[in-house]
Design goal:
Layout lengths: L2 H21 L6 H17 L8 H8 L3 H4 L5 H4 L12 H5 L28 H13 L3 H13 L2 E3 H10 L9 E2 L9 E2 L10 E2 L4 E3 L8 E4 L5 E3 L10 E2 L3 E3 L2 H22 L4 E5 L1 H4 L3 E5 L7 E5 L5 H10 L6 E4 L7 H7 L4 E4 H13 L3
Parallel strand pairs: 12-13, 13-14
Antiparallel strand pairs: 1-9, 2-9, 3-8, 4-5, 5-6, 6-7, 10-11, 11-12
Helix pairs in contact: 1-2, 7-10, 8-10, 10-14, 12-13
The structure holds zinc ion.
Length: 367
């Protein structure tokens, strides 16, 4: 990462860790120490005079936009509020802060790593590598099938998931846990229609996917039905929580959420006449490759990047160049295009729909 992003990653991660710890302080006694430890990390970053000195000062700041107290935050990060009025992590924390997560206690023992969800202590690449390490020793085909399975089945009835994996000759890649209580109501749960992970249910009866671009927002009725809000996809059916399991939040956020776009794009391109598309070829050298039928060379190679902040995405790609020829952003990030092209001059950048149209045109051209 470039210096400014690395510099911001530490206080942002510390703020998210402290916010999460504060949200579970009643159930987890370790939480108090974690908030104190993260206050120290933020103090070291901001320096004397401008930093919160006590955990309660830090908690007060976590209810305000980051830009108020963290200088150098880009506009998207600057508006991020970590805790809501009920001391719960906001949806934006899941959408935005994940782009910045890093180790804050590298080189020393990190007591938080034992109990904090991994997306608050590890970078996305680490969560991904751990999930797929078993697949890397197999064939390219095994890798692609295994990874696709995980993205398409982040939750479900335990027996059914096992049967499906057996049918595909897959060994379980990650552990599935029972559906957490705050994602259940009267023994039922609802999958987000986009990512298929259990939606969160608030005490006031709102049922939502915490990744906002999925626009999955519903209201629970007395008869245990859920009604879609304006612009939400049609309501999914309720499923029994008895014997139902799901992957943990880190796998959902770092593998399933981006994977949904990667697979959607792959499947659209693969249906074009005269070409075939490969998903995660070369064990994820890039996300999608397209060839003309009968040819070995790639016609188009794509990497999908789903970041809430164009500045964070540009810094990431500058630090770790992508192997694909085109960087693709999801259609719901089309507003980022102009800024990304400015920040990454010379890079070929397109939205999902643009690259679909371009590939469709290329596939029809004479060679
Ligand atoms: Zn979702």
């Amino acid at each position: 990462m470039n210096t400014s992003l690395t510099a911001l990653a530490r206080p942002v991660t510390a703020a998210v860790r402290a916010g999460y710890a504060w949200s579970v302080r009643r159930e987890k006694p370790e939480a108090w120490l974690e908030v104190a430890r993260m206050t120290g990390v933020i103090m070291r970053h901001l320096g004397p005079g401008s930093a919160p000195v006590t955990p309660s000062e830090l908690v007060a700041l976590l209810h305000q936009p980051l830009g108020v107290w963290l200088s150098g935050a880009d506009p998207v990060l600057g508006e991020l509020v970590i805790l809501d009025e009920h001391d719960r992590l906001t949806d934006d924390t899941y959408g935005i802060a994940c782009d910045y997560t890093t180790e804050v206690l590298a080189g020393q023992e990190d007591p938080g790593a034992r109990w904090l969800p991994k997306w608050r202590t590890h970078r996305a690449e680490q969560v991904e590598q751990e999930a797929f390490q078993r697949l890397v020793s197999g064939s390219d085909e095994d890798y692609s099938v295994g990874r696709r399975f995980l993205v398409e089945h982040p939750a479900g009835a335990s027996d059914d998931l096992l049967d499906r994996q057996t049918d595909l000759g897959l060994r379980p890649l990650v552990s599935y846990e029972p559906i957490p209580q705050h994602r259940q109501e009267a023994g039922r749960w609802w999958a987000c229609p986009v990512c298929h992970w259990p939606m969160a249910i608030s005490p006031s009866g709102h049922v939502t996917c915490r990744f906002r671009p999925h626009r999955a927002t519903y209201t629970l009725t007395d008869g245990l039905r859920i009604l879609p809000a304006d612009g939400a996809p049609p309501a999914p059916r309720a499923q029994s929580a008895n014997g139902a399991v799901c992957v943990d939040e880190s796998i959902w956020r770092f593998v399933v959420v981006p994977g949904v776009v990667e697979i959607r794009l792959h499947d659209r391109l693969d249906r074009l006449p005269g070409v075939s598309a490969a998903l995660y070829p070369g064990k994820d050298r890039f996300d999608v490759g397209v060839r003309r039928a009968g040819e070995d060379d790639w016609l188009v190679t794509l990497d999908v990047k789903d970041f809430s902040s164009p500045a964070a995405l540009a810094a990431k790609v500058t630090d770790r160049p992508i192997a694909a020829g085109v960087l693709v952003v999801p259609d719901y990030r089309r507003d980022q295009l102009a800024q990304l092209k400015r920040l990454l001059p010379g890079m070929d950048i397109a939205t999902e729909s643009q690259i679909y149209r371009r590939t469709s045109r290329l596939s029809r051209e004479e060679q």
